[in-house]
Each structure stands twice: as structure tokens, then as C-alpha cells.
Amino acid sequence: MEVVHARCAGLDVHKKTVVACVLRSGPDGLAEPETRTFSTMLGALEVLAAWLTEAGVTHIVLEATGVYWKPVYNVLEGEARWRVLVVNPEHVKAISGRKTDRADAQRLAFLLRHDLVQGSFIPERAQRELRELTRARTALIRERARAVQRLEKVLEGANIKLAVVVSDLLGVSGQKMLDAALQGVSDPDELAGLAHPRLLPKRDLLVEALRGRLSRPLRFLVQQHLDHWRELDLRIGAFDTEIAEQLRPFEELLTRLDAIPGVGQRTAEVILTEVGTDVATFPSARHLAAWAGLSPGNRQSGGRRQAARTRHGNPWSKGALTEAAWAASRCHDGYLPAQYRRLAGRRGRKRALVAVAHSLVTIIYHLLADGSEYRDLGTHYFVERDRARAEQRALITLRTLGYQVTLTPNPAKDPAPEVA
After folding, report:
1. What is the mean pLDDT of residues 380-406?
2. What's the distance, Cα to Cα, between the start and end of the chain in Å?
């Protein structure tokens, strides 16, 4: 095999230790592995960097093992004398039964020596730290949703069906009624009187939903879940403030992303921290979609292409874009809801959501790459694009129902054919 990198190193990273293997080509072209083990403490990692420098290493590869690769990468990145690659462990997985730390390091160095590994997208340290903020906020938002679910389970056990009547269990009305119930108010009519005036048409149903019994254990559980939810809400607000302050230099980009249907402020912040402000790392929108896990996998055998799931990608970007696709699908007008409705009927809602998310990531790529503003193609884009096919489908449907139909163009509104 052709040797591409004459001096390279493979690092097998663990929580406590790093096993490093250096391969250097000799006069005969062969390379003898030199392996050492280092601690993952900062001082030991600096010794590792000095040893790699002394060995004249130009390329380094390590696996993305959980979060343990980050301390090593922090020490090695930014040096002009070498290039550091972080690879997906699934791409360099060892054969079962032949795995040791030294063998893993040697295998990584061998693959790098012959240029058989592809590095993952690792942004600059400032962006990685912003990612930590948005990812922690996303985790808190999910925990807040779980706290609401736990609270609803307790209320169900007390025969209080408040979630059936109100759309938001812990909205303004829900919190007022729950606080009053925790303070000892048990009369359903009195509790229902605390609801917002917009719930007046549902007052009788609300009174029935509040005819439950909160015993002492259940009252304690409701209070704890409610306090937990409020604490999480305060922490999420603090994260919102800090993230907005950190991203203040990129307000123009956030406003541009926020103009896309389904993309809100938080979603735009997640996208900007995950993808970055410069998408030059990705050669095309398709590469960005594949990295985000929104491209279909390739599964072909015997010359026939079979159905395949979407590929694994960045879970944070994929989750944010899928949520944005769901929000966009609920809009009334526009290209994205039209795309969702066009696909949901014959492909199913989940596949349609993935398709809309793929369109979103394509739009985001061009907005960031070209510096352009979002321009919606319109609700009737697909009809106008396939105008002849739409006319034929309408004619076939009407003729199947027993009508004789001819089409006469309307001069005043040319795009919409008149059925006679």
C-alpha cells in the first residue's frame, strides 16, 4: 500500500490514559511502531505533545470516544506543525477478539499512514464552548417537558383531568388553579373561576375536570414537580440570556435564519452554534444534510436499490431541524407546508417531516453561504412546476366521476384553468 504520511501517530484515548503509537518511515521505507502510555492530566498531555514534536509527527488521529477525546484535542489543536483528525469509531472498529489498547493505537496509526481515515468536522474551540451552552439548554428543556409529564401522571392518579381541558397544563391558568389546590381550595367552581376568560366556554367541562381529590402524598408530589418545573424554567431563562449575549455579534445571521418558517430564536441559535457561521467546510448543501443526519442511506444489492433509513449524523442539529420542520408543516401558506402536505398523504408524516427538514438544511446552507435573504417559493410552487400533470390528474378525476370536461384558459387569471 502507498505510504501517504511518513510520520504519523495514532492515539487510543481513555478516561485515565492515552496510548500513543508513532510510525516513522526508515531508509528502507518500513516503519517500526513506537508506543508509549500517558496520563490524561494536562501536564502529561503536554509531555505527549512534546514527544510527538520530537518525533517529527505531521499527522495525528484519535477516535471520538465520548467526551474523553476533548482534553487531548484541546492540547493538540491549533499547532501548525501537525494536523489532528478525530474519526468516527465505527469507521475504524477492530475485529472482535483482537482488541488491545496498543493494537488500537497501532491500527489507527497504520490507517492514517496510508490515508484510510476521514476526519470529522471539529469547529474552533469558541464554537465548541457555545455548543456546550445550547446543548445544556436543550437538555434542560427536555427535562422540563418530562417534569410536566410526571405532574400530569400524579394529577391523573388524583382524578384531576386538567390536561384534557387546557392546552398547556402549566400555563397561567393551570398554575393558578394548581397553586390554589395546593393551598387547600377543593371547590371545583372556585378553582375554575381562576381560569383565563378565554376558557369560559369550557367552564362546565373545567369544573368536571377539577372534581378530584388531592391526598397528602399526592399534594406533596404535585408541589415537588411544580417547584422542579419552575426551577428548570428559571435556569432555561438564564441560559437564554447568556446565549443571546454570546451570540450578539451574529444578530444579523440569527435574524436571517429566524425568517424561515418554523425556525424560531432558539432553533436559530442551535443551528448557528452547531453548523457555525462559515459553511465552507461543507462542499455543498448535500454534504451538510448528510452531516446533520437528514440524507437517506445507500442500500443497494444485486443492482436493486432498497429502502434505507436516514444516516446517523449530528443529533443536536437533526433534533432542532426536525422540530422546525414540524412547526413549518403546521403553517397555512408557503413552500414548506405545501411540501409536507404533498408528501404526507402518500409517504407518511414521518418521511414528510424528514423531507421538510432536508429542505430546511438546504435553505440554511445557502443563506449562510451566499449571504442572501429567505424568499418563499409560495404555496402553489409544486402545482405551477408540474402544471400539465396537475391538469391531467384533475381531468382524470372528473372523467372518472362521469363528467365531460374541457379546459378553457382564463385571460384574467392565466395560472388557474377554468373547468367547463
Report:
1. 86
2. 73
